[in-house]
Specification:
The protein is an alpha+beta fold. 14% of the residues are buried. The chain contains 6 helices and 3 strands; from the N terminus they run H-E-E-H-H-E-H-H-H. The protein is globular, with a radius of gyration of 15 Å.
């Protein structure tokens, strides 16, 4: 059995994630309370800038208000590894706020983001 294809896919995904982080189109979040998964704990999540397709069916105002239902729909579309809807509901509230804040920051125009001091 040839295993080079899955390995290439993983390498391509890792390269794409690194490029997204470098360009500011993604941010890596360390969870205060790691999620428990069958393969082990998930402590870090990459959040990518949502595109229009990822935002389909959602209200931008609800995302800016960090509406839990809106985040439950969007986070599986923009996280790596993918957070499932049920996992979003299991997040520690502080981790949900952190992820929601990152999502909301992607929705603010660049000129407005530059007016605020970075943390």
């Amino acid at each position: 059995m040839d295993t080079t294809k899955p390995q290439e896919d993983l390498q391509n995904q890792a390269a794409a994630n690194a490029a997204a982080l470098a360009s500011g189109d993604a941010r890596e979040i360390t969870l205060d309370v790691p999620l428990k998964r069958p393969g082990g704990e998930l402590a870090r999540v990459l959040v990518r800038r949502p595109n229009a397709g990822a935002l389909r069916g959602l209200s931008l105002v609800e995302l800016l208000h960090m509406n839990v239902t809106a985040l439950q729909t969007l986070l599986p579309r923009v996280t790596e590894p993918m957070l499932h809807k049920a996992e979003v509901l299991q997040l520690d509230p502080a981790d949900l706020v952190t992820l929601g804040t990152e999502v909301a920051s992607f929705l603010v125009p660049k000129a407005q983001r530059e007016q605020f001091p970075s943390a």
